[in-house]
Protein 1
Amino acid sequence: LNNELVQYTVQMYTENVHRYMIRDSYNSGTWNHLARWAANSDHMIEQAVKNGDANSEAIALTMRALFVSNWTDIYGDIPFSEAFQGRNNVLKPKFDTQKEVYTQLFADLERANSLYDPSRALRYPNKDLMYKGDIAKWRKFTNSLHMRLLMRLQNRDEEMGVREKLREIVSNPSRYPVMASNADNAALFYTNVDPFIGHFGTTTLQSFTSNSHRMAEHLVNLMNNTNDPRLGIYAVQQNNEWTGLVSGYPTTETNATNCAYLNKDVLGDYTSPYTFMRYDEVLFILSEAAFRGMIPGGSAAAQQYYEQAVLASIDYWDEINPSPTYEITQAQKNAFMQIVAFDNTLEQILNQKYIALFWEGYEAWHEYRRTGYPNFKIGKGTANDGVLPTRFIYPVTTVDTNHENYLKAIANQGPDNMKTRLWWARKQ
């Protein structure tokens, strides 16, 4: 869904997400998936508290924050304070405002950071499929996620004290350690030992690539015009040329001739990794914050963080690329960095962040709605009055089963459509 909305890919045949036609099964599927995993994390918190396991509680608070933040960033007001209480017969939880949700998320991440105790091992370190029981890395992820969510509220800075907290985190790395290299990435490296296999591992090459998703023209042109060495890792070229498919084209104008498609060897193998957050994103957050004057350093710091971010992204993708014949050389990196040399604009920082956020959940869509970048060309075959969706509509089942609280939510937030802007997307 993210890839289709932000013009990473275009689905040619059966789906119309790139035309902003989103079925209720997507609204409900996304809602149920995020709520289910948030509930799993909530149950883990409960068990950790019961067992006096501070590290597991911190991890669970972090994972709940990850899923709940995506949940609210997709729909807006959601059940949170009364959610996950079905066993206590709370079957119609109230919807909390986004401000209330974020206030709680910040408190949860603050608590998680304070709970970590590296002197105590996890009860079951072999069950930690991401960091193998490395508490220091979990703590870095917690604080990096905190930074992501703070920057999400950049438009509500005065109301939520965003820059004050960002400055506190940046100025006190011993208290708030964050990701310091790609070794700290919140990444799942699948083993291909059932059931720990990549999501698309069993998908055929045809269904993963040429029978469905082609690379979008916007991304291909943005990368090809600068000789971005990551393009050959993200995608597979056709007939020795880089061409993408126009997003939002009318159904009568399908022409995918020579259009590149997703690189299954990198993205869709049994062992292809998946990341929740990467080091380069932390650097892009710092670059933007310095550029906006939210943290010290100004343009010089923004440039330094920007350059480090781009290189960290390149190094990540080069490292996970299994191809023995395509390796990014230092000369390629040097030449590329000359082409994308810092021009002291926010647009450049966010365009490069957009490229780096490829294959990382809903982050690129969240960022577009927060900042307005990249500057997409909206296809003439799109619905929703040609407005790139600002949110998903609440699922029909939620509307039907929790109708009174649903009505309160839309009275607070605005109409239940895909043009209502979320609280954090509005200027103060």
Protein 2
Amino acid sequence: LLEAMQEHQVTVAGETHHLPRPFFVLATQNPIEMEGTYPLPEAQLDRFMLNVVIDYLPEADEVAVVQRTTSGGGEKVNALFTGEQLKLFHATVRQVPCAEDIVRYAVRISARSRPGQAQTPDFVKDWVSWGAGTRASQCLVLGAKARALLHGRTHVIFEDIVALSQPVLRHRILINYRAEAEGITTEQVITKLIQTTPEN
């Protein structure tokens, strides 16, 4: 998994197979039935761009899902675009301008999540055992660029970074036993980081 995500290849029995582009790893995690599954090490978790929490559907949506999946055959899936077109989308996202102040804001959020640094707030020193690395800052900015396009803008704003903070950071910040004992969650730490990190 680590080789696929970082090197874009897999090695089996000494033979290396390069993975075609575009390629990505999508994983699901059931927080209830953990038997038979193993927590991933931090190095692997860090290579996932986002950690998205999906809760139960509202009743009306769940009714619609049940109706569609229990009547008739499955719907035909039609491709909306090709892999080559997706690579062009990726290139377009990377070209979205992001002002240096906003990049610095993303970097500052990640840096302030690290215990033992000069700029680390006291609540991070108290509750966090491991903070976000440089890849978190990269993912905040890249995700913000994609969000800007999805919202019809051609540039990133601070709000994009804030909106991406939970899914980008929740699997990169590890809280300690003190935080758990006090009922503090990673999401609460991230919210406090956003609230206390100045934009300028």
